[in-house]
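Input structure tokens:
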């Protein structure tokens, strides 16, 4: 029974990944359609990591900044629900912790688009703090600016630079 559940969960992540490939390939509409179908299938009680990941990418398919913000807030809400559980109780809590810098960065960018600089600064600070916390955990990557961490940190710095003029 556990193996069947794990295979089912892997299938959801595979489907999310397939839609992400469509998104990155430029087919935002089809990606949005697939994410929407998956969101309906998952429902409010679906796996938290799935909901977080799905909402995180669904935000990137939105044309309206307000809709993008709503999806990014859903992603953060799902992450916070998982983070509230003890790590031993949820196998995905570390994966969610790694998403926090990006989740807050996206929210900061949303608030910039919506001309809400104070809210943007709050989330930008939270993105920076979350990235620093990841470094303190020792991700095993060589140096603080390698891989995912480096990409997120560079994006944080770019948005900070852009915000200095606001």
């Amino acid at each position: 029974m556990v193996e069947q559940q794990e295979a089912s969960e892997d299938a959801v992540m595979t489907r999310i990944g397939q839609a992400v490939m469509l998104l990155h390939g430029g087919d935002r509409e089809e990606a949005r359609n697939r994410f929407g179908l998956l969101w309906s299938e998952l429902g409010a009680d679906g796996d938290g990591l799935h909901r977080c990941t799905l909402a995180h990418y669904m935000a990137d398919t939105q044309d309206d900044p307000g809709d993008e913000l709503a999806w990014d807030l859903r992603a953060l809400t799902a992450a916070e629900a998982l983070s509230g559980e003890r790590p031993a109780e949820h196998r995905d809590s570390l994966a969610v912790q790694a998403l926090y810098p990006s989740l807050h960065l996206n929210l900061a960018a949303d608030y910039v688009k919506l001309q809400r600089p104070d809210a943007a600064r709050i989330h930008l600070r939270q993105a920076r703090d979350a990235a620093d916390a990841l470094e303190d955990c020792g991700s095993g990557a060589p140096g603080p600016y390698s891989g995912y961490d480096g990409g997120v940190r560079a994006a944080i710095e770019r948005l900070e630079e852009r915000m200095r003029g606001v």
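The two ends are 54 Å apart (CA to CA). Residues 117 and 159 are 11 Å apart (CA to CA).
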